[in-house]
Amino acid sequence: MLVIGIVEDKKSKTTAELLHHLLLSLGKNTGTFWGSVVQINRHAALLKSVTVTSELIQRVLALFSRAKTDYAILQLSLEDLRNQVYLAVNFDIIIFTGLPLHNAQPPFSDERKKDIITLFTEEVAASKRKFGMKKTLILDNDMPEHYFLRAKKEYRIIPYAVEGEKSGQKEYIVPDAVSMMAHGATIRIGDYEFRTRLPGQEGIRSALAVLAAFRAMHIPFRDVVPFFDTFKGTAGYMRYISAGQPFDIIIDAPKTSQELSLLLSIARSLQQEKELGLLTCIIGPEKKDDERTQKEKADIAARYCDRLYITGETFAPEDPSVLERFISYLPWEVRDKRSSVLFFRFTNRKEAIKRAVERARDQDILFIPGAFEEETPGMPPPQDERVIISDIVKEVIGSTQGEKAGSHRNAP
Questions:
Q1: Which class is domain 239-399?
Q2: Which CATH superfamily is domain 2-230 in?
Q3: Which DSSP letter does residue 287 get?
Q4: pLDDT, tens digit, for every residue of 231-273?
Q5: Beta bridge partners of 181
Q6: CA pair distance 365, 247, nearest whole angstrom
Q7: According to the 3-state scheme, what is the secondary structure of 2-44?
Q8: 286, 349 contact by CB (below 8 A)
């Protein structure tokens, strides 16, 4: 059983889910562990313990071994590694992804994050010296290399990057071309071109990290790339909501203003393919947003959208002064109504979505960013904003159809 560790800043499971899907598509028995979830092939279960320890890892690996899995995927975060760098001994391949070494979030400062990664990779090197086990590190090339190359003879390195020169490194995974699409991207590497359903830079990074893992496993790209397009993606990635409405509703969960810009640019390109129609966005401040982020979001929304419904991030009533502050960050011509871009403020998020749905026309696109709950394979889907939006659409459509039926009955 080959054991693959995935180390990310937060427990985003995109890379683990994609790798699990591809191995399963190749007919490999695969076990994956993230957080409190254990999945073997297509069956998932919850563990009572949510604290990752060496003992828990051994229990999970024993479970996978009894199930005769060919591959074991273990998802870890920096929090898991903080005082447990010895976990490195469990892995044959270790993927580092989603670990920017700047703008670190609490509880990790930039230096503390570097210390954790450095200690962990030194433990990987020690495994070679102590036990003769030479492991493979798969590294995001945006990460400072000197933290990993102190003992480079002690482990194999396969770097990857969205952009960059190969610099003579034979195993460097970097695309020859990337084309953004509405629901992901088309990536070309050498003779192989494939589509991933994970849009944005992070989605591309996950795809490249997984390809690097297959190179480490000596599985040819030609066997893998046909299955990228069959991966439906994790919850909250450029999904359509279809509840019988004649216009498009797209939802997503951008984590940064840069992701919001990318997603709105894609939505705008989709809208421009239609003869008529407007791009409408539900937008507003989030509690985690600082002043700079709010200014960026306001500017991005005004740049790409025709209509802005400004409201809070939750369905609890929003303080009007918070919305007014966000509105003050819009370009002056929008605020002064000297632009074709119109905005409307709602302290009630549900009312904002309802009004946007009521006013939408046949060729419009309504983009709704939100904090959508992720689904866990094998578990009931959570009650989240997607369900609420669908219910709103059905209510509006039902009301509209009822009014039309009434007008026909009352016609002379």
A1: alpha beta
A2: Mur-like, catalytic domain (3.40.1190.10)
A3: T
A4: 866 544 556 787 888 898 888 878 778 778 878 887 887 788 7
A5: 184
A6: 6
A7: EEEEEEECCCCCHHHHHHHHHHHHCCCCEEEEECCEEEECCEE
A8: no
